[in-house]
Structures are given as C-alpha cells and as structure tokens.
Amino acid sequence: MKPYQPKELALKDIAWDQLIDLMGKANRYIARYDGLLQSVINLDILLAPLRTQEAVPSSKIEGTHSQFAIQCLDSLFIQPIFSSRNFERNSSIPRSSVARLLSTLVENDIIKIVQQGAGRRPKIYTFRRLLNIVIQ
User: Fold this and answer.
1) Which of 69, 75, 79, 81 is found 20 to 30 A from 10 (Cα to Cα)?
2) In which order are the strands placed within the sheet that holds 112-115?
3) Which of 48, 45, 71 is nearest to 58 (CA)?
4) 16-135: which CATH architecture?
5) Among 133, 76, 136, which Cα is nearest to 105's?
6) pLDDT tens-digit series, residues 87-114
7) H or E stretch including 119?
8) pLDDT (tens digit, 9 = 90+) per residue, 31-65?
9) Pairwise CA distance, residues 55 & 59, whole Å
10) CB half-sphere exposure, 66, CA atoms < 13 A
11) In 3D, which of 80, 61, 99 has the Cα closest to residue 88?
C-alpha cells in the first residue's frame, strides 16, 4: 500500500507546534497498526471495530442529506487536519456549499475547529475521530 501523496500541501500559517505531537503519535501508531496488519491472519476480526467507529460519522454525514456526502467523507479521510480551502480542493465540493457543510459538521460534533481563522489565515479543522482511531 502506497501512502497518499497530495498534489500540493497548501496549508499555511498553521500553528504546527500545537499539532506536531499529535502527528508524531499518529505516525507511530500507524506504523504499529501496519505491523499488526502484517501479522494478522484474519483481518476482518481486527478491522470490524474500525468499521463500526467509521460508520457513526458516516451515518451522521449522510444524515445531513447533502448531495456531497461521499465527497465529504473522502476528503475527511484523505486529510483529517485541513482548512476550508483544502477541504474544497480535496472534495471538489463547490465553494458555495463548503462553508455550510463545514458548519453542519462542526454543529454535529463530527469535526472540530482547532485553530480560528484571522485575517487571511483560514480556520483549521480536524476530524478527531479518525486521529483517535489511529492513536488508540
């Protein structure tokens, strides 16, 4: 399995010092999880809890009745720490719908704002549930 390689990582003005510890932990746990996957004979047993945990946010997002539910989920899994610009680029959801969709996701506690925007600096959001699954 090859890691995802974004075309452009356009995140600027991010308070990396607040996120670097989480990214390091996530990286370690992904490596540990990858090692476990290599040694497990029946992957379905190991993946079943992850599928269940992923199903809850999926259902909530689909419950928004948005025509963009699939693109939204794909974008969250591609880049779980993102700005609205990155979300728009990754999901191909029209700009006119992105702000409303992100607000709905925040209101439903699916994503969290980790850094408020100021001036030209955009808000930074995170899909913590995915990061928490990786860190567990």
Assistant:
1) 69
2) 81-83, 124-126, 112-115
3) 71
4) Orthogonal Bundle (1.10)
5) 76
6) 888 888 888 888 888 988 898 888 899 9
7) none
8) 887 876 676 666 665 566 666 556 555 555 555 55
9) 6
10) 23
11) 99
